[in-house]
Amino acid sequence: MSTAPLALHRHGPASGLPLVLLHGFPLDARMWDDVVAQLPDVPVLTLDAPGFGGSPAPDDVAAAVSREPGPSLETYADAVAATLRGEGVDRAVVAGLSMGGYVALALAERHRGLLAAVGLLDTRADADGDDARANRLRMAEEAGRSGADAVAGMVDVVLGETTRAERPEVVERVRGWAAQGTPAGIAWAQRAMAARPARLSALEDLEVPGLVLRGAEDLTSTQEAAEAMARALGGGSELVVVPRAGHMSAVEDPAAVAQALRRLHASVA
């Protein structure tokens, strides 16, 4: 088995408890760049999802962790754990945004010993409803026909109203990243997210510090969903709402997100 199923990028100090950041769909690890720049003294590891950035195609990732081919966030979580083990990391602060949050939840269920603390950003612990699931599957089919064009319209959904109105450079940056997704990666990720189960129960006895964060203008990950995750994590969690940011809070207000992640990391480092 390969020791590195996924592309991993190191930032900051070479030693210490790492902060692992898992990106949102349909971007790659570059979405964390501005956050990482605010944390020069923290050892940070960013990873690319299967079929995104520098990571192999999804079926190759599945083979590397001895799982059957096919879309599965469990495969992604196992690949994260295997990649970290290959780098000598057996405990980390893990934070994920959107799809990355779904993977952090799967890690809490499947590899909880890895988690020294967990951050859940602009994400939710429930399963998709029928309409959302059907929309994901339609987008997966469209990616097979038109590639990254299938996700072009998502930029106006994932960025907050303030960012779209006042920060055209951020809009274009995100649009450029989204255009670089591979058809296989886009389709696999959407099918994997459509199939995910509810995982709120994975947080209820996790017994590690937690961060739940959302952009105030996030129309996808609601305040209700954030509060449910914070309650499940218990008294050791912090709930943060970032003003004037949408679903991609780490890109829209990296300073606020970096501050919250620094507090989370400091709670166990």
UniProtKB/TrEMBL annotation:
MF terms (GO), sorted A to Z: hydrolase activity
Record's keyword terms, sorted: Hydrolase
Domain AB hydrolase-1 span(s) in chain numbering: 19-260
UniProt-listed InterPro entries: AB_hydrolase_1, AB_hydrolase_fold, AB_hydrolase_sf
PANTHER family according to UniProt: AB HYDROLASE-1 DOMAIN-CONTAINING PROTEIN, MONOACYLGLYCEROL LIPASE
Protein name, as recorded: Alpha/beta hydrolase
